[in-house]
Amino acid sequence: MALTATALRPRAPTAPLPLWPQPPAGPRGESVHYDYCLLPYTPRTTTADDLASVNVLRWSWQAHGVLAEGEALLARLLAGLGAGQVVWGIKQRANQPEASSWELYFYRRPHNPQPYTLARIAELFAPLVVHGEVPEHWRWLMFSVEFDVAQLRGERPCASSVYIESSGLSYKLHAGQPPELENHYIFRDPLTGIDEILARLQVSVHAQPHPLGLARLLPPQLMRAFHVCVANKRLADAVYWSRVDFDQLQFFLARHSWPAELRAQLTAHASQLRHLQWDLGADFQRTPDEPTGTGFAFIKSGIYGSF
């Protein structure tokens, strides 16, 4: 779905945002660290002043003047679902710092509360309106709700998508219309599955199949990852990296020219965020006149965490 760019509203300098600490482990020692598939992982380090990854989401909302609306939504979701239930994503359009959007993902996992449905999530989003429904007989793995500044302010309904179990397929959901195929994706280990990753990228209609293009799509700095995902979408293709470290996150944000304000916040709190593992993604699209000769340009990038 194409999200409409919304200009940043002029505002006075913002006060420092009170930061959320990393929640302690549960009563049975269960993890509170989850990747973008809502699967638990062991933190890289631990310190007494560790911060939760959701602070990055809050900094993004603050930069766009929608912190109050975003935190109200966070409060409703945490009250209704509990901690460790939601994956968050920040999407940044290339060279458009004002065009951020956000997506929240809700996976079917053993630790979910009941009932756990898109209809229930839509209730928690209220007064925001979420379009789409997931029939009871669908075998879904995950659904998501995507929104930009205007949608978070309640000016337009939010969009939703559903990911079907064991298929690698996702569909955009529309009110009163059939589901629309959105993307087809594979997850592979970057070592044992590199041949499949390369084969998928070499047949992409959005990139030239030569080493320079592959080097841009799979920079060595990011290949120390838990999984690499390749997705074929309706108007672009994409590569994702799961469970990368803080230095890899900083490399990625600089590479894709993320807003300096957010990058500065991350740098200022680096010691409190190094325990986390991060998930990243970059969409690329065919551009025949792209000057490097690889035939594509990056059009959007994203970072992911959980709360």
Outline the fold blueprint.
Layout: H1 54-63, H2 67-81, E1 87-93, E2 101-107, H3 118-125, E3 140-147, H4 149-152, E4 159-164, E5 169-173, E6 180-188, H5 194-202, H6 211-217, E7 227-233, E8 237-244, H7 246-255, H8 260-268, H9 270-273, E9 278-286, E10 296-306
Helix pairs in contact: 1-2, 1-8
Q: Helix share of residues? A: 10-25%
Strand order of the largest sheet: 1-2-3-4-5-6-7-8-9-10
Low-confidence stretches: 1-13
Q: Helix count, per DSSP?
A: 9
N-to-C order of helices and strands = HHEEHEHEEEHHEEHHHEE
Mean pLDDT over all positions:
92
What portion of residues belong to β-strands?
Answer: 25-35%
How many whole angstroms does the radius of gyration measure?
Answer: 19 Å
Shape: globular
Structurally, how many domains make up the residues?
A: 1
Distance between the termini: 25 Å
Q: Note the main sheet.
A: 10 strands, antiparallel, barrel
* Number of extended strands: 10
Structural class: alpha+beta
Structure notes:
- The chain has 307 residues and is α+β, with helices and mostly antiparallel strands.
- The protein has one domain.
- The chain has nine helices and ten strands.
- The chain has a ten-stranded antiparallel barrel with strand order 1-2-3-4-5-6-7-8-9-10.
- Strand 7 (227-233) and strand 8 form a beta hairpin.
- Helix 1 (54-63) runs antiparallel to helix 2 and helix 1 packs antiparallel against helix 8.
- The radius of gyration is 19 Å and the shape is globular.
Summarize the structure.
The protein is built from 9 helices and 10 strands. The chain is α+β, with helices and mostly antiparallel strands. β7 and β8 form a beta hairpin.
